[in-house]
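Encode chain A's predicted structure.
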Amino acid sequence: MTDRSSASAQRPHRHHWRRDVVELAALFCAVAVADGIANLVVHGPRGPVLLVASAVALLVTAAFHTWWARRHSHAPPHSAPPGDPAPPASAHPAATPASASSSATTTAPDATGAGGTAAATASLWRMRTTVHDRPGALAALCTALARNGVDILTLQTHPLPDGGTVDEFLLRAPQQLPSADLTRAVARAGGHSTWIERADAHDLVDTPTRMLGLATRTALDAAELPLALRQLLGRCTIHSIPATTLSGRPNAGADAPVEGVLEATVMRLRDPSGGAITVERPYLPFTPTEFARARALVELDARLGPRVPRSQDVLTLPEGNEITVRRADGSDLAAARAMHDRCSERTLGLRYHGPVADADRYLAHLLSPRFGRTLAATTASGKLVALGHLLWDGDETELALLIEDEWQRRGIGSELLHRLVALAVEAGCDSVYAVTRAANTGMVAAMRGLGLPLDYQIEEGTLVITARLDATPVGSRVAYELPQGRPAPRHLP
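Encoded structure for chain A:
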């Protein structure tokens, strides 16, 4: 407070006689009016009626005032006078494109607050667009999105060698806004090569958290590397090319350099277990940022070396024998070949659909974690009696079983099949398929026992059974990894 204002506050208040005269006159007028109304009520012919009418008028006036106050209680505040300070900029998150983006990012996790109703009537989109890397380019994009009522939840930038930038957005847009209108708005703001698709709540996880999760999965299991790459890069086709063919000759396309190769929509990385990993995404070119992330996962896998979870589960067969189900890898190659020697030609033929003499050549490929996951069933003495394979086949996933003749028809195949389906569900597969012969009634019965929608396709004696996993019952998702140690035995039906 200044000295001038302090002096004014301490100055004695001056008495005004005019105010006293006005107040006294108003009092006399009020008394005269009250006396007149009293005489009218007491001595008038309709005095009681007038008194009741006055009371009703007062009640109606009070009720109207209450309704009017409640209706306008949430009206926006009046604009501030010219001399008052303006409200802070943070009170208007949509005032500028930059503040709109930051506000969307901070409010994204709120699913129950004030934005819950808006989120329920909105659609999530993942969008990529390429812009020229110049000042104001991103602001123009954000402004175009804001004009269409689009909320920016997350934003990533991928610099390109030619000076451009690929901007990747996670958007919450009005449900009635078509994707074509959204693409046109971005094009008018300077974006080109725009790609857009529907997103879901899983995409709300930020990129560092997703990368840490994928690195953890890769560190725990070598078979997770292709799945981690698929989740990192979106819809893509991943092929693991072994260093040599089944006949022992060098495999064409397996000579990727250590640092890898990036060619627009094709990414080739050196496989730490030998050979190469090829990732293809025809509809959307890879960025150098995505290539660096994929190469980091491959380098992590190379440093950790071969590894599979060593947990196991003990099951009791109907006749009382116990078998152990566990993950298998290349260290089980000798035991698997010994099981081949004990199997009949018919059993090997139903499994490999070809010459029995070539069966051993597939084992090294099947037991490699790079090409899928393998479950082994062993007896109490440690003898390997059954193998179940879940094989990554590009965009598809194949199921395969091999059970020694002496151990067939005891429920081992159904148990392995249920566990393989559980692995496929955890890997995010939409479907699995099994290739067998029409005469293999055991495999057909095991597939029907999954309780899933099945599609059958038969051609020249070969039967392909496809199971859709979108209808997988929760109870069939059997856990395949248990804490270390020997768990309590479980009885097979």
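The mean pLDDT is 75.
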